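Worked Example 4.2. Consider the chain below.
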Amino acid sequence: MIKTVLYFTYVAVSMVFFTPFGIVAFLISLLGFRKPMTAVLRSIETGWGRFVIKLTGCELTVSGRENIPREGGVCFVSNHGSIFDIALFLAYSGRVIGFVAKKELAFIPFLNIWIFILGGQFIDRKNPRQAIKIFNKGVENIKAGGAMIIFPEGHRSRGQGLLPFHPGALKLATQAETVIVPVALSGTYEIFEKNYRVSPGPVKITFCKSINTADLPAADRKQILSDQIFDVIQKTLNNAPA
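Applying the procedure from the previous section yields the following structure tokens:
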């Protein structure tokens, strides 16, 4: 339990420490220096994410990073087992990466700032009109060359395996007509949420071969993508170490 307390204390303190640097980089990017400041933000998130993961003591395997486009818009579509999933993406995606977060996270100090800085948005699922606005901002971000994460299961699976994808979950990617990189995560649930204690164990993140949504027929694009990505992630998880 002491290890867990110390771990989350570090996570909180380090987030507070890096926030001023992130804010400055974000503001400078608005003045026309987006490319160099994106590199600064990427360095901060990569270093922070890797050290956070290292502190867990997990046996990490990363594969398929050659499948990640280094430039241009991209959507990472991943299974979602744990709160540690985001740290893995920050550490190894090589992109400044945003995601759509539930509105409750907007009230958590410093975390809310970083979600915004990295291009994330907060959504109220009970407010359809607001959800459409957030969706459109996500599409604009991707078309402008940004990177976003989609968790099509809708919530963390908490050790239940790969859950069915929600209808329309991939609409963000199809509307932006962007490249999709399916991602399979295994072992993250056991790191903390299984027993609510930080515990070392095998963790694997696999960036699978990319898919260009523009190459798929428009009429059945969402369903074809959903089935294809689900199968890719499921097969990759089946081959992951137990």
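The chain has eight helices and eight strands. The mean pLDDT is 89. Compare this with Example 4.1 before moving on.
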